UniProtKB/TrEMBL annotation:
PROSITE patterns: B12_BINDING, RADICAL_SAM. The keyword Iron-sulfur applies. One of its GO terms (biological process) is methylation. Its cofactor is [4Fe-4S] cluster. Residues 8-141 form the B12-binding domain. It comes from Acetobacter malorum. The keyword Transferase applies. Residues 181-395 form the Radical SAM core domain. This is Hopanoid C-3 methylase HpnR.
Amino acid sequence: MKVLAVHPSALMYTKVFLRLEPLGLELVAGAARDAGHDVQIIDLQVETHKDYWELLESFKPDVVCFSGNYLANVPEIIDLCRATRVRYPDIFQFIGGHSVSFIARDVLALSEGAVNCILKGEGDASIGLLLRALEDGKDLLTVPGVVTMTGEGPSPVFVESLNDIRPARDLLRHRNKYFIGTLDPAASIEFARGCPWDCTFCSAWTFYGRSYRTASPTVIADELEEIKEPGIFIVDDVAFVHEEHGMAIANEIKKRGIKKEYYLETRADVLLRNKEVFKVWSEIGLSYIFIGMEAVDEEGLKQFRKRVSLDKNFEALDYARSLGLIVAINIIADPDWDRGRFEAVRQWCLEIPEIVNISVTTPYPGTEIWHKEARRLTTRDYRLFDIQHAVLPTKLPLPEFYEELVKTQQVLNTKHMGWEALKDTAGIAGRLLMKGQTNFVKMLWKFNSVFNPKLQLADHMRKARYLMPIQPDVVDSVDRKDLYVHGPGGRKTRALDDATEQFVDKTRMTEDACAADS
């Protein structure tokens, strides 16, 4: 069968700071190709809807699959599915990915028959089974993870081994368009999949059932040797949770003499626990590290159930600085913030050398705060669920909230972008331009055209064609069984030694709750 895999357009944040290759879609495409199918990929982050229609006409696919990882992309995906159904009524269309896995029935209802099914869970595990069922004319509801308007198949399954799946990187048509910071161009790679923690604002753990699986250091090094890009973004939700695994990858890289520059995300407590791993990685090319602090006070940390003390957060920043790493931090702005709170955060951001990004508390399906806050939503427009818009009631009038938010985000622009950034990165920028890489340099002056309180406020005024269903009453407590896409398999699904498992439990919640969820 001919299969076209589609990634939707860029979101607000990715229009400025980064544009990452669609690794998840490449993995799904690779799995489909391994199953014997003819596959093409189009990424609408770097191509246009016109390109999409031209590719449909020239390639003539039997199946079109869309990546539904982000809630804000849902309207665009549905529009494309509906338009494709009109022009090409015989094409089978389905959507997979992180976000749609939590709202499968809602998306199917909005598509009004344009979408044949949703594939929940790990798409690279089930796409071969789905395509085989289509070819053989079998009931789709025999395929794990399939949801249609008439029913739901067996529970989603995991890929048997992360060592056996390879992304179809060769199918991406504009690889020089992907970057993160000065890593331009940059490829993405997966060392581990899943997250063993359980933060209230995050759905990574509910998607993967608190599992944590790793790829072989040898397989990872093989993949790194094949990647042509000099920059590498490690997509793991929390990098180097398992010290031994992180060190083994580093040793394999050193043994082979692989020269790359790396960017990763981790937690402050993981960094402090596994200092030696991060030290070794800083010596083999780790340049950037992103730490999701989320809050700068103890009350905020408690709210997000991040059991990392402020002292530990600041200790982690000090240690990262000592390694010469460029550190980026995320702080979540609560809708309850007033002017004084915004001002205090601004002053803190100005006093530290790190890059500080400010996002907005956003309840996402699959998170605990979704179940507790969804009834309070001030909008049901999917497009506004991008962590840059306020979708819950704000203490300040909404225009003032956005003014304060952007004023606070401007600290990042003032300190780390425009001419100020160019002074520090002139050599890097010059070398990139000599090679024809313009992503990073263009980024430096994009902030004000994207982050604008008037534009953000105007987004609320747009007529929404697709609305989330009205949610049930707010609940005080959540049954975790209602959150999971892949059901929790307990300790056996986490590739962690006992000491690391105990560390995770101590840093995520109370022991009683751990016992109930392990």
